[in-house]
Structures are given as structure tokens and as C-alpha cells.
Design goal:
488 residues, mainly alpha, Growth Hormone, Chain: A, 2 domains, globular, Atg22-like
């Protein structure tokens, strides 16, 4: 993060005072949430579920797609109303704690997901329930920021939450790799001779252990919240009255969206390309495990390195946005993401760039046992590219929304911005599942993601930026005032 130079003679803490304990403890909750998302949903457990527990990688990817479709649809139906209702409820810290704690026993149950234990239906049901509760807890967590942190702390607390989340996930991945996956597989002086806690890699216990591990991390992440985070003030409204007011606010948002021409076009485009990028994140581990035959070692190494590259994406946006402008920067990063997805579609054990590949004829990139084929290197490069471009696109889209929102209505538009990211969370999984089963190919299952990204980019292109308007309201709004609804 770039820092503005301090005034001469002024102490640093006057310009950047330390975050309050309330703000830091609010941010620390993300360490439990991100650990679950990255270890279980992306890189370790779900790939194990799709490629080992199901045994057929193509069928496994389709099952994961159906799982994401159901959870996304349920969250899309509930999250908008919760988002507009929550500000009328008053105290909400207890809601966040209980919604988050629901994932603890369910996550611990994933240890039993094995042949002869929890079957695929029960395991998928657990993951779906946790997925829905995570989305709802995210809404509550976001709404608590304005109460947990001072106004001058909002941006830093929000950024710290992402840093802590990714940092905690990377630390846990390193621990799992060092303590449970590498022992017995490699012989290095800093690696234990056998997996700690007596875990058996042949029974896929390291993958299953991520469930209880993330459950413990979730509990730890909530302790500072309960002790130090400021809660919202109590409300005099009953639950019924709060829901009624939330419905009124939701209608107000839709009314505002009808009148905001350019912002409406942008939010619809974002809804499409965000769904595509969410799909890529969700299926990365499943795709690599099934198409390239990667096990937990490769997935963990890729996850650790990929998280580092994803962190670069925010810096890229900070450089591109002032140079190209937010819209051009966003189109550039979406195009880069699209090319990387196409590159991943063209990868397989026996082909690269859609052309046949034979290590005996075409050679290997290096003699090491891991990542020793050119298709794997191409996939890694594309995955790193997706991480950089997608995170950059997320940052640029947020800045572009700030440009399009007229003064005095920024809060309302960012409420719509947040809701648009959830409205079609079911679409990408549905299309991936249909394409995977229809073509019986994991690579073809990725084609709808490329299509959604292309459609979203094409819909973004005609959106006019504020500098392209002459004598017009930047967001295409009428001058008449409108009540600004409460947002998530």
C-alpha cells in the first residue's frame, strides 16, 4: 500500500493513528472466514471430494457445480432482504457470532467424509448449508464495520480484514503442507519424518482434517470480536417492523436503479463478469485435481503461491486506474482474465494450447517431481494471471462505482453494488454443471465461464464514464431527490 509522505516534523501516528481494538477485532473475523473458503472450498477439501470421494472427476465437478448452484440461489434469495433489514435490527454482533458458529460443528463433521463414513449427499448438504450461512454472516459482518470502526478507520479496517484473511489461510496451508502432507513423501531436514497427529495420507486424512482445523480457526477468530468489537446501538423496532422497513428499503433501491441509467448498465455488467470470476475461484482446485491429477501437495503449493500473486492484483489496479482510467483498466483486466481462462481450457495431461503434448517427445520444464510437465506450467501461469487480473478488476470496479455514483447517493449505490455481486451467484455453477455433464469434460465445463466474462465485458464497454457526459448527470440520474435506502 502506498503511503503519502508525512508532513515534516509531524509524528506518523497523527497522520495514521493505530486502528482501535474494536476495528482490529472486527477485521480478524475474516481470518476464520477466508481460511474456510481457501482451504475447504477452493484448494483442499472440495477437490478431494470431487476427485476422490466421487472417484469420477467429471461427475465430481458437476456435483460441486450443483452444490454451488443451490447454495448460491438460496443466498441470492435471502441476502438482499437481510442486507436492507439488518440496519433496522440494532445490535447485531450476536447474529454474526451465531451465524459463524453454525459452521463450526458442520466443518468438524467433514472429518467423517470418507468411504464408509459420510456419503457424498450428506457431505454436499453440509457444504451447501455452510455456504449459505457464510453469505448471510458476510452481510452482517459488513454492516457491523461502520459501528466497529471510526469513520477514518473504515478503509484501513476493510483492507486489514482481507490481509488477515489471506494471511491466515496461507499460514494454515503452510502448516498443513509441513505437518501432514510432506512428511513421508519427501525427506528434508526441516520436515517431520511422518505426519503429525498420526494422520494417514493414504486415507486422505490430511484433506479431511482441514474441516476441524478451519472450525478451530473460526472459533479463534470470533473471540476478539466478542471481547472488543463495538456493537450497533439497540433498536426500538420489533423484528417484524425491521423486516417491513427492510422491504421498503429494498424497493427504494430498485427505484433508484431504474433512474440511474449508466450505473444500472454497469451493475448489470458487473453482475455477469463477477459471476464468471467467482466460478473460476470456486472450481480452480476441482479443475486442477481432475484434469491434471494434482494431489494435496500440488494444490497447497499452488494455493500458497496463488495467494501471493492475487495480492499483487490490488497494486496493479492502483497503477492502472490513474493511467488508463477505471473503465479502461477494468476492461483491460477482464480481457486478461478471459485469456487466462481460455489458456486453462486448453490444458490437459496430454495437451497444451489445445495441441497434443508428450513429455517424451516435447520434453519437461525441469527434472523435479512436482509440476514437471509443460501443461502444468501453463495452468500455473494462467492461474496466477487470473489471480492478478481478477483482484485488480475487483478493485477497479469498486473505484468505477464510486465515480458513477453522484454525490449524496454513494451509500445507496454501494448497497446496489454489494447486492449485484450476489444476485446471480447460482448462474455460473448451473452453467458449469450443465456443460460438464453435457460434454463429459471438465475443460468444456469452463467454457461458460469464459462466455460470461466476455458478455460482461461487452456490456461494460458502452457504459459512459463521468468525463464522457457533457451537461448530463454522471450516473444518468434525474435531479429530483430520492430517499437513500439503507444498505448492507
Amino acid at each position: 500500500m502506498q503511503r503519502a509522505p508525512a508532513d515534516l516534523g509531524a509524528p506518523a501516528d497523527r497522520r495514521h493513528p493505530p486502528l482501535s481494538k474494536s476495528a482490529v477485532s472486527w477485521a480478524f473475523v475474516e481470518s476464520g472466514r477466508s481460511s474456510y473458503t481457501i482451504l475447504i472450498a477452493i484448494y483442499i477439501f472440495v477437490p478431494y471430494l470431487a476427485s476422490v470421494l466421487v472417484s469420477d472427476p467429471v461427475k465430481g465437478q458437476a456435483i460441486i457445480a450443483n452444490l454451488g448452484q443451490g447454495a448460491g440461489l438460496a443466498a441470492a434469495l435471502m441476502a438482499p432482504l437481510l442486507g436492507t433489514t439488518i440496519d433496522h435490527v440494532g445490535r447485531r454482533k450476536h447474529l454474526l457470532v451465531w451465524a459463524s458458529l453454525l459452521s463450526v460443528p458442520l466443518g468438524a463433521l467433514l472429518w467423517l467424509a470418507r468411504p464408509g463414513g459420510l456419503d457424498i449427499t450428506a457431505t454436499a448438504t453440509i457444504l451447501a448449508i455452510v455456504g449459505v450461512t457464510f453469505t448471510l454472516a458476510e452481510v452482517v459482518h459488513n454492516s457491523l464495520l461502520v459501528h466497529a470502526a471510526r469513520r477514518d478507520e473504515w478503509a484501513r479496517a476493510s483492507g486489514l480484514s482481507l490481509t488477515l484473511g489471506n494471511g491466515a489461510a496461507v499460514v494454515l496451508m503452510i502448516i498443513v503442507l509441513w505437518a501432514f502432507v510432506l512428511p513421508g513423501a519427501v525427506h528434508l531436514p526441516f520436515v517431520p519424518d511422518k505426519p503429525l497427529l498420526g494422520l494417514n495420507a493414504a486415507r486422505h486424512e490430511p484433506e479431511r482434517f482441514t474441516g476441524p482445523l478451519c472450525a478451530v480457526m473460526m472459533v479463534l477468530s470470533l473471540i476478539p470480536l466478542m471481547l472488543f468489537t463495538r456493537d450497533a446501538p439497540a433498536s426500538s423496532l420489533t423484528t417484524r417492523q425491521a423486516i417491513r422497513q427492510g422491504l421498503a428499503d429494498l424497493r427504494g433501491m430498485l427505484t433508484l436503479l431504474k433512474e440511474a441509467r449508466e450505473a444500472r448498465k454497469f451493475l448489470i455488467a458487473r453482475m455477469i463478469f463477477m459471476d464468471a470470476m467467482g466460478g473460476v475461484f470456486a472450481f480452480t482446485g476441482v479443475f486442477a485435481a481432475g484434469v491434471l491429477g494434482w494431489g494435496p501437495t500440488q494444490l497447497l503449493v499452488e494455493g500458497i503461491a496463488g495467494s501471493v500473486f492475487a495480492a499483487v492484483g490490488g497494486l496493479v489496479a492502483g497503477w492502472l486506474d490513474p493511467w488508463l482510467g477505471c473503465k479502461r483498466s477494468l476492461l483491460f483486466t477482464l480481457s486478461g482474465c478471459l485469456l487466462c481462462i481460455i489458456g486453462e481450457i486448453g490444458v490437459g495431461k496430454d495437451h497444451i494450447f489445445f495441441m497434443a503434448y508428450d513429455p517424451a517427445l516435447n520434453g519437461r520444464p525441469w527434472p523435479l517431481p512436482l509440476f514437471n510437465t509443460w501443461p502444468e506450467w501453463l495452468f500455473i501461469a494462467c492461474d496466477f494471471g487470473v489471480g492478478v487480473f481478477s483482484v485488480s478488476a475487483l478493485a477497479s470496479s469498486r473505484t468505477f462505482m464510486a465515480e458513477l455514483a453522484p454525490p449524496g447517493r454513494t451509500t445507496a449505490f454501494f448497497g446496489l453494488f454489494a447486492l449485484s455481486g450476489r444476485a446471480t451467484a447460482w448462474l455460473a455453477p448451473m452453467l458449469v454443471g450443465a456443460a460438464t455433464l453435457g460434454f463429459h469434460s471438465q475443460q468444456m465445463g469452463y467454457v461458460p465461464l469464459a462466455g460470461l466474462l466476455l458478455i460482461g465485458s461487452l456490456m461494460l464497454a458502452p457504459v459512459r464514464t463521468p468525463t464522457e457526459h457533457v451537461g448530463a448527470d454522471p450516473a444518468g440520474l434525474e435531479a429530483a431527490p430520492i430517499r437513500e435506502p439503507t444498505t448492507v
